[in-house]
């Protein structure tokens, strides 16, 4: 066909389908559907994923809080709920990688795109590059979603850009994007979709906690895996048996635990009642380690304190353990709405054994509380670099400048707890971060400032409450040791713990 004939060929065939320009010498092809037949309704699962991304982008919402509500509102069945979860979480985790690709295909900075268009592009890119979705379905469904939610005009741009995305496999995109850099951390940042500063921080953390830097790729890969749901039966109050009958599997890391992979966890018996709770196995281990470790100076073991209790997961487990020991737990959370979450978390624990306070944790360092407590949990506010797999959007919100302020607060809270603990009592200092500044350095600085503070063998304390074959990675320090858990080694969040006692 001559160029003149092509130019004069009708733009639609007898069925009303439009033609495209063709590629090279290939003839022009007509679209698969006429304009009136094109899908304009969004697939429900993709719509939920899109709405989650919009909440995260526009309102700084947390995906793990928004997604379950959206699934219930749209009444998604189990299969669609799983698809929506994989799509939303995956697009958020890999946002950096997809944005790097999109920035090469869009003729303006991504910051100048309508945020809704950018979210739709990320969803389409994830389906094309990381999910078992046929390319034609990923394209058609994403364009239909955009047409329904954003408009016909933007849907054309989205269609054009995603077609270019589909021309290469992920490995080819990685090779293209990293071809011009010699920085190993920058290459890993693109390949594993982590900010460069976090890649470097995690490399330093591995070395600081006695592991090999060569594990970095495995750690980054583990951060991008969808975590299973971990359950814990509160001791004396719940049992995992009902959960196992509902399809859960026995936990392999800690007693009274299970894992669940079968949809809405609220359907598991005991979850709504609060006797079975969703809690990462690493959190279970550190709470049990604090409650189980032998007090260096025997004596009263009646008063326990969770200094930073919100939202209440560790407090609920500590409270249940306190009941078995006839101890009393004070769960402190300074933020009112988080304090209410603590109360909800503790609701299954008999009320005579616990109370919730709303003080600034540092207030417990005053003379009023000096030496009052036998066991204190300091689950200090931190960067959360250890839970990136569970909070997929958090890696893009954190900044290096956040760390100094957090480490200062961590040190102040640890000092307050040291004032409040009795001689021979114990403090469990915990962060959900392996960052050296938030873990080892905080503990080192504290031990230097307190001559009568002694670090215990924390690794042994964690191993003592873990199931057999679960060695906690740690770092020997000042005659004791710390414990550091890892996603790629233990299958938990990267939880850090140091158990400290006060000597006379």
How is this structure best described in words?
The protein is of the alpha/beta class and 504 residues long. It has helices at residues 3-8, 44-59, 63-73, 78-93, 95-103, 115-130, 135-149, 152-165, 170-178, 184-192, 196-208, 216-223, 241-245, 281-292, 313-324, 336-345, 402-420, 440-449, 458-465, 487-490, and strands at 229-233, 249-250, 257-260, 276-278, 303-306, 328-332, 354-357, 373-379, 421-431, 453-455, 473-477, 480-484, 496-502. Among the domains are: 44-165, N-utilizing Substance Protein B Homolog, Chain A (Orthogonal Bundle), CATH 1.10.940; 280-502, Rossmann fold (3-Layer(aba) Sandwich). It contains 20 helices and 13 strands. Strands 5, 6, 7, 8, 9, 10, 11, 12 and 13 form a 9-stranded mixed β-sheet that branches. Helix 2 crosses helix 6, helix 10 crosses helix 11 (196-208) and helix 14 runs parallel beside helix 15. Mean pLDDT is 91; it is low at 1-26 and 28-37.
Helix content: 40-55%
Number of helices: 20
Q: Tell me the number of strands.
A: 13
Overall mean pLDDT score?
91
Indicate the overall shape.
globular
Spans of at least 5 consecutive residues whose pLDDT stays below 50 are 1-26, 28-37
In whole angstroms, the N-to-C terminal distance is 96 Å
Name of the CATH superfamily of the domain at 280-502: Vaccinia Virus protein VP39
Structural class: alpha/beta
CATH C-level class of the domain at 280-502:
Alpha Beta
């Amino acid at each position: 066909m001559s160029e003149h004939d092509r130019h004069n060929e009708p733009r639609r065939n007898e069925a009303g389908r439009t033609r495209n320009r063709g590629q090279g010498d290939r003839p022009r092809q007509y679209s698969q559907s006429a304009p009136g037949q094109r899908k304009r309704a969004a697939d429900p699962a993709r719509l939920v994923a899109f709405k989650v991304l919009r909440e995260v982008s526009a309102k700084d919402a947390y995906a793990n809080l928004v997604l379950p509500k959206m699934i219930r509102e749209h009444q998604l069945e189990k299969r669609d709920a799983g698809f929506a979860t994989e799509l939303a979480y995956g697009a958020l985790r890999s946002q950096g990688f997809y944005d790097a690709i999109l920035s090469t295909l869009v003729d303006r900075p991504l910051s100048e795109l309508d945020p809704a268009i950018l979210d739709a592009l990320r969803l389409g890119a994830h389906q094309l590059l990381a999910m078992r979705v046929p390319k034609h379905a990923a394209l058609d469904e994403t364009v239909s979603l955009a047409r329904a939610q954003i408009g016909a005009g933007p849907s054309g741009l989205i269609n054009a850009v995603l077609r270019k995305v589909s021309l290469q496999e992920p490995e080819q995109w990685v090779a293209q994007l990293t071809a011009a850099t010699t920085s190993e951390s920058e290459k890993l940042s693109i390949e594993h979709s982590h900010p460069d500063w976090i890649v470097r921080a995690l490399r330093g953390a591995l070395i600081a906690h006695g592991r090999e830097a060569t594990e970095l790729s495995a750690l980054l890969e583990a951060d991008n895996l969808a975590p299973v749901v971990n359950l814990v039966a509160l001791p004396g109050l719940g049992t995992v048996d009902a959960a196992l009958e509902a399809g859960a599997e026995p936990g392999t890391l800690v007693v009274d635990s299970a894992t669940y992979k079968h949809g809405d966890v609220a359907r598991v018996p005991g979850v709504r009642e609060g006797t079975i709770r969703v809690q990462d196995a690493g959190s279970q281990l550190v709470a049990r380690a604090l409650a189980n470790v032998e007090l260096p100076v025997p004596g009263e073991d009646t008063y326990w304190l969770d200094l930073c209790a919100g939202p209440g997961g560790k407090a609920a487990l500590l409270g249940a353990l306190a009941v078995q020991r006839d101890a009393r737990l004070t769960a402190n959370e300074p933020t009112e709405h988080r304090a209410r979450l603590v109360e909800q978390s503790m609701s299954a624990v008999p009320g005579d054994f616990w109370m919730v306070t709303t003080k600034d944790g540092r207030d417990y360092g005053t003379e009023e509380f000096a030496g009052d407590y036998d066991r204190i949990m300091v689950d200090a506010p931190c960067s959360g670099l250890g839970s990136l797999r569970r909070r997929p959007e958090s890696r893009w919100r954190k900044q290096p400048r956040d760390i100094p302020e957090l480490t200062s607060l961590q040190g102040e809270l640890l000092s307050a707890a040291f004032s409040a603990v009795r001689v021979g009592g114990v403090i469990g200092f915990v962060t959900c971060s392996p960052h050296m500044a938030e873990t080892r350095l905080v503990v080192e600085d504290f031990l230097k400032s307190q001559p009568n503070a002694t670090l215990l063998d924390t690794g042994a304390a964690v191993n003592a409450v873990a199931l057999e074959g679960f060695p906690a990675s740690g770092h020997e320090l000042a005659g004791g040791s710390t414990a550091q858990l890892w996603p790629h080694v233990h299958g938990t969040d990267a939880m850090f713990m140091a158990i400290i006692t006060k000597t006379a």
